[in-house]
Amino acid sequence: VDADGHPDLLIADTNHPAEDLVAPGRGAVQISYGDAATPFARSDVIFAPEDGELFGASLAGLGIDGEGRGTFVVGAPAHGGAGAVYTYRAGVFDGLDLPPPGTSGCCFPSAVAAPEQRTVGLQRYVAGFATNAGLGSNQGGVFLCAAAGCAPLGTFPASNGSFFGFDLAGELGARGVAALARGSIEGVYLFAAGSWTAAVGGRAVSADARLP
């Protein structure tokens, strides 16, 4: 986060009380800073801007931007009744992404992943929207988000009740992004070379997955 060359640790808690320690369930993200002498001895806490947002329900580090600042995104799926993603650079608020155009329903995002965190300057992330009803009841979807906003990541499988994108992992490029689906198309799907392909059945994806 502070781009000092030492890894930092991000911990999210959707039930963390507000800064005044009175209002429960507001949500927060703790930044524990790496250090050569005393790792994680220094920390900051970012409190949810509003009550009841489920701030911290998803979290991903995007790596270093073009100015050497560590960037991360925080999901708040109850923001405004529809959901949102907060962006922070060097621990400071730097933008808010609302649900993509053409989507509807609550609870964006269901998951976030940082597909290019090893590439300096590429500040993009992938967001799942499992309860998206833009195409039908809870069909879901996966979206690539950048400075210009969020757009569909390819043409994803669509089936009512599939909740496509309720969990995500992986990287863009040669290895691909993995997304989970339920219902009639339940399983793991990989996005690589511009399209989604059914992979293997499964109910969990590791946040540290390394895809073939």
Report what the structure shows.
By secondary structure, the protein is mainly beta. The strands form four sheets. The protein has a four-stranded antiparallel β-sheet with strand order 4-5-6-7, with no helix packed on it. It is globular, with a radius of gyration of 17 Å. The C terminus is likely disordered.
Fold blueprint:
Elements: E1 9-13, E2 28-33, E3 42-47, E4 58-64, E5 70-76, E6 84-89, E7 92-97, E8 111-113, E9 125-128, E10 142-146, E11 149-152, E12 168-170, E13 177-181, E14 187-192, E15 195-198
Antiparallel strand pairs: 1-2, 2-3, 4-5, 5-6, 6-7, 8-9, 9-10, 10-11, 12-13, 13-14, 14-15
Query: Gap between N and C termini, in Å?
Result: 29 Å
Query: What's the main sheet like?
Result: 4 strands, antiparallel
Q: Mean pLDDT across all residues, rounded?
A: 80
Quaternary structure of the protein: single chain
Q: Which blocks of ≥5 consecutive residues have pLDDT under 50?
A: 202-212
Number of helices: 0
Alpha carbon gyration radius:
17 Å
User: Which secondary-structure class do the elements indicate?
Assistant: mainly beta
Shape: globular
The total count of strands amounts to 15
Can you give the helix content as a percent range? under 10%
The ordered H/E elements are: EEEEEEEEEEEEEEE
Strand order of the largest sheet: 4-5-6-7
How much of the polypeptide forms β-strand, as a percent range?
35-45%
